[in-house]
Amino acid sequence: MADAASLPPVPAAPPARAEPLVEVIHGHRVPDPHRWLEDGDDPAVQRWDDAQSERARTVLDAVAGRGALRRRLGELLDVPVVLGAAVAGDHLFAIERGDGRDQAVLTVASALGDAPGSGRVLIDPAALLDDPTAALDWYHPSPDGALVAVGLSTGGDELSTLRVVETGTGALLPDAIPRTRAASVAWRSDGSGFAYTRYPDPATVPEGEAGYHRIVLDHDIGAEPAGDAPVWDALPDPTAWPDVRVSRDDRWLLVHVSVGWDRTDVHLCDRTDGTWRTVIEGIDALTDLHVVGDRLVGTTTLDAPTGRVVAAPLADPWPAAWIDLVPASDAVIEAIVPTSESLLVVSTRDAVAHLARIPRPDRAAATDAGLDSAPAPIALPSDGSLFALSGSRERDEAFVGFTSFAQPPTLLRWSDGDLEPWTASGPDRTHDGSAFAVERHRYPSTDGTEVTLFTLRRADVDPERSTPTILTGYGGFGVTMSPGYSAEAVAHAERGGVWAVACIRGGSELGEAWHRAGQRAHKPQVFADFEAAADWLVAEGRTGADHLAIRGGSNGGLLVTAVLTRRPDLCAAVHAAVPLCDMVRFPRFRIARLWVPEYGDPGDPADLAWLLSYSPYHRVVDGTRYPAVLLTTGAEDSRVDPLHARKMAARLQGAADGVADPAPVLLRVERGAGHGQGKPTSRRAEEGADVLGFLHAVIGVSPAPD
User: 269-290, pLDDT tens digit by residue?
Assistant: First the structure.
């Protein structure tokens, strides 16, 4: 591409001490020269982080066009969007971002009427806590919407303190409950209290256990949380993850317990006499149930890898009594949304969302129509994704969020069989996606299996050998890579590039079998699927390896760093955000024991063998010319410890010794930031400009004039 940017001069990397540390683990010699970088509290490590970040700043600030990228990303991120919604009584609560706000806020509006009303800001976390990094992690309104439980955190740590807000006045009640990361909250019908999940005081558990032992407790509004009594604490192991729901009449309490990433146990309590029943336990199936009238209704992968919708009487809730409301098919069942009369069924095909309606099985209309009647499809605006699903208890209506690659997240209301836009309209609340083209491709992986690949480009761009392309993916934990808005993707496509998303194994694009085909010992196939996507793009003449970059975050960061070490020839540039890189020691840090069922246990000899076969930090080979690499991480990340990015950067930088004209390896460590959730818009724009500026300078994108 003519007049393409290039990276400015790169200073020498700060020296990283390489120690002759080699452990023999289950017969394997495992070198770990940079273990000293694991201790983020060590002043020497902090100085090294700062030196790496200063070096990265020297380069990234000098990239041509970075200022224009920063401004454009700021505009794209400031497009007003809805990130979550919940209907409670006559109130509609929503998490909104953009429109000049640097941080997402919680708004409340009327859910009634024939047209959307403007929401009133109920919680502005940055203003409330007088901290620009303060974030709203989650929220749960009471059934009538008079009160809202919210989770607040700062610095990106997501550890959350539960607070209660009066909807009418915006006043905070005295209740303040710490250690409520990603809390599940089930309100009593009268709003007098709730069941909720909380983590233990670190002083009460063994060292390193504070991120586990999540249990369900009961809280009365106004009571001291220290006196909250446990409701469910029979964890099958410390890493199990319980969630809680309560029926509308308060009689039935449902506890779902996730054990690993393939199993959900479900327990049902009749609160009239305190009797517990185990609905399903110890079976590798994902089950998500609701109390709907006099029945349990929900989704399960039991005997159905793509999922099915089932129902059973509360008096006989066990799997033998389950009947299919929506049987298994080629569609992947994602969720159901109950309303007063209906069940909305969310599914995907090839990662594209579909929505349909069936009658509630406890209603006369369902009996008249027959429980085996086909779901009635509900048309969506285009190929995209659904999120923020919430149905009304009082009315036959629901609210759903919708997004696609060039369509920012917006809110839709379903009623009377149709969907209608419910995000307030106006010149500042629209984003024109008509200038872009989204395509869905199929390509063969290394074993012949066909994989879906989405591409986003400007409509007037015809991909060819010199087209700058950024390929991304995830490939783990059953995460489906459905079409979703990305400011970075739009900014890249505007500059004439192609943004590609590979729906590789490890996700749930084709159901639970697709997930398991990329799990544990099968993880290398995930990397092979991703490499095959890059090879297909090149073979089809849609880009060239010297114009191709790959990027991924978290598990996706593991993906791209593993591919980096497996195929140094694959691409010209790599961005790995908050990545996992040391697969031998990962369970020792933060909450990573939660991921052992997905990856394997390095303490097990068989598991260690496959983990070592791809562990990026251990697969770096001295003297190899690797692509240009940018590693980004947050110093306060409570999910993936920044040690992974540190150790990987040091290892790659050391491996470049003796390589003629090595590509740069940059490490960007952001203070006061975590895994990415809740990051202020201004910081997201700065990081996005760094990432796109770096990738663009390597793969040949013409810079916009600063």
Answer: 999 999 999 999 999 999 999 9
Q: Which residues contact 374 (CB under 8 A, 6 or more apart)?
A: none
Instruction: Give the count of alpha carbons within 13 A of 332, CB side only.
Output: 22
Q: How far apart are CA 399 and CA 610, in angstroms?
A: 44
9 burial (CB, 10 Å; 0-12 / 13-18 / 19+) is exposed
| Residues forming a β-bridge with 295 | 292, 313
- Give me the amino acid identity at 481: M
Residue 603 maps to a domain? yes
Cβ-Cβ contacts under 8 Å for 318 (sequence gap 6 or more) = 279, 280, 312
Structural domain contains residue 117: no
- In total, how many domains does the chain have? 1
Q: What confidence tens digit (pLDDT) does each residue in 255-270 have?
A: 999 999 999 999 999 9
Q: CB-based burial of residue 661 (10 Å sphere; 0-12 exposed, 13-18 middle, 19+ buried)?
A: exposed
Question: Which tokens in the block code for residue 60?
Answer: 């990234």
Under the phi-then-psi rule, with left for phi > 0, alpha for psi from -120 to 50, and beta for the rest, what region is 477? left
Domain membership of residue 404 (yes or no) is: no
Per the structure block, which two tokens stand in for 388?
Answer: 């923020």
| Torsional sign, CA 216, 222, 223, 224 | positive
Determine, yes or no, domain membership for 485.
Answer: yes
Partners of 22 in the beta sheet?
31
Both structure tokens of 204: 């009460």
Q: For residue 94, give both structure tokens.
A: 């929503």
Evaluate whether 517 touches 525 at the Cβ level (below 8 Å).
yes
For residue 220, which of 229, 208, 211 has the smallest C-alpha distance? Answer: 229
Q: Name the residue type at position 100.
A: G
Q: What is the pLDDT of residues 467-479, one digit of tens each?
A: 999 999 999 999 9
Q: The CATH number of the domain where 661 resides is what?
A: 3.40.50.1820
Contacts of 315 (CB under 8 A, 6+ apart): none
Q: pLDDT tens digits, residue range 112-126? A: 887 777 789 999 999
Burial (CB < 10 A; 0-12, 13-18, 19+), residue 251, is: middle
Amino acid code (one letter) for 397: E
- Can you say whether residue 10 is alpha, beta or left, with left for phi > 0 and alpha for psi between -120 and 50 degrees? beta
Contact between 294 and 314 (Cβ < 8 Å): yes
d(CA 432, CA 535): 32
Closest CA relative to residue 176, chosen from 231, 219, 131: 219
Supply the DSSP symbol for 314. Answer: T
- With residues binned 3-state (H G I as helix, E B as strand, rest as coil), the percentages for the chain, rounded to 5, are 25, 35, 45
Distance CA(588)–CA(24), nearest Å, equals 18
Amino acid letter, residue 560: V
CB atoms within 10 A of CB 190: 11
Tell me the residue range of the domain where 582 lies. 22-75+432-699
